[in-house]
Amino acid sequence: MKKFEYMEKHGYEQMVYFYDKTTGLKGITCIHNTTLGPALGGTRLWDYECEEDAALDCLRLARGMTYKNAAAGLNLGGGKTVLIGDAKKDKSEAYFRALGRYVQSLNGRYITAEDVNTTTKDMDYVHEETEHVVGLEGKSGNPSPMTALGVFYGIKASLEKAFGDHDFTKYSFAVQGAGQTGYYLIEYLLEAKAKKIYFTEINDDHIERMKKEHPDVEFVEPDDIYGLDVDVFSPCALGGFLNDDTIPQIKAKIVAGSANNILKDEDEHARMLKEKGIIHAPDFVINAGGVINVYHELGGYNKDRAKRDIAKIYDRLIEIYEIADKDDISTYAAAKVFAKKRIKIINNVHSTYIRD
Ligand code: NAD
Predict the structure, then answer these.
(1) What integer pLDDT is reported at residue 1 of this predicted model?
(2) Is the pTM higher than 0.85?
(3) What is the per-residue pLDDT across 55-93, written as a single tens digit (0 to 9) for each?
(4) How many helices (H) and strands (E) does the chain have?
């Protein structure tokens, strides 16, 4: 991969490689765009096959964070860190404190947080060396219930768009994955007295938990979830599950869930959903509850304020659905238009000179 060509094509600002000789920490931080504010994105630890894979993952994830943060209405740009290593062997206090020093060296242009294979506890070590870290223990807490809350508001907006009301008692739901986010989403749906909820899982403990706590929520086998005759399909498991095989099976009028990168091919599969007349809530808009929650740590965390901000996912999706209709594009493409428009407008506002 020609990195400068890639950076030029997609408008990246900075890519930093770092290596700590004491702990063996090897990582890359990418800053995609800081028009709206410091770049925020978590630190992912992964045993990448090669450095090229790590670099590409970091670049893509950083760009995704620009759109996610912009569409979430946050004063944040997009960035990401990937660490090349083995989560079972490499993690230690020193390892994360070394990371903290590299984050600090970027002097606030980048703020990190937990991500795949890193935890709030690891971030506490990072915090020993830098203030530019969020998602700490005892602050905004577990992001998953807040992500699920955002998904709930996103489903509400999608019901409004599809049926002209959001009376949950009239509608049925199929939730794929009852892990961190799916579990809480099901609780919100139950609270709203949803007509019927189905779920699927591959983890026996999660299946048992649901059967024990909510016996009315009906289990179906993983392969059967797509073709259920329901109003809303809510993917809350892994990415890439909406593809050439699964989209033709979907009977639901709405697809709205927490899973990141749910479309195997962003353009092709967004188009397929549009052609089938399915209302699709773009992942990076509907699953932003967690990042909105953690953002509130920067100004002194207040849970009620964070929740009020998460509720705005409803209005954002309504606006995105309007853009999609007006421009006759997929909702995924409309979400990008929405995010880019905010970046452009705020950039223009900042063109007025004021003395620092
Ligand atoms: P999780 O691992 O806690 O839950 C996912 C669940 O899906 C697991 O219980 C797993 O057993 C199940 N699963 C996996 N494959 C399955 C299959 N084929 N059929 C049925 N179930 C299957 O993860 P999570 O934190 O709930 O995240 C879910 C998705 O939401 C991920 O894509 C994640 O990136 C995204 N997301 C999560 C958050 C958050 O705050 N946790 C925020 C933004 C986005």
Answers:
(1) 82
(2) yes
(3) 999 999 999 999 999 999 999 999 999 999 999 999 999
(4) 13, 12
From-to residues of CATH 3.40.50.720 in the chain: 144-341
- H or E element: which one contains 45? strand 43-46
Q: If you measure from the C-alpha of residue 179 to the centroid of ligand 1, how many angstroms do you get, rounded to a whole number? A: 6
Q: Which CATH superfamily includes the segment(s) 3-66+77-127?
A: Leucine Dehydrogenase, chain A, domain 1 (3.40.50.10860)
- The DSSP H or E segment spanning 17 is strand 14-19
How is residue 129 written in tokens? 């060396």
Q: Whose CA is nearest to atom 29 of ligand 1?
A: 259
Using most ligand atoms within 8 A of CB, pick from 205, 258, 263 the residue to mutate for ligand 1.
Answer: 258
What tokens were used for 260? 């990141």
80 is an active site residue: yes
Q: What is the pLDDT of residues 283-330, one digit of tens each?
A: 999 999 999 999 999 988 999 999 999 999 999 999 999 999 999 999
Q: Is 276 exposed, middle or buried (0-12, 13-18, 19+ CB in 10 A)?
A: middle
Half-sphere exposure of 2 (CA within 13 A, CB side): 4
Residue 161 has pLDDT above 90, yes or no: yes
Mean pLDDT on 156-174: 98
DSSP-assigned states of every residue in 82-127: EEES-TTTS--HHHHHHHHHHHHHTTTSEEB-B-TT--HHHHHHHH
pLDDT at position 141 over 90: no
Q: Which residue out of 2, 21, 68, 80 is catalytically annotated?
A: 80
List the CATH code of the domain at 144-341: 3.40.50.720
Neighbour-count burial for 136-155, b at 16+ CB within 10 Å, e otherwise: beebbbebbbbbbbbbbbbb
pLDDT at site 46: 95
Closest residue by CA, ligand 1 atom 8: 179
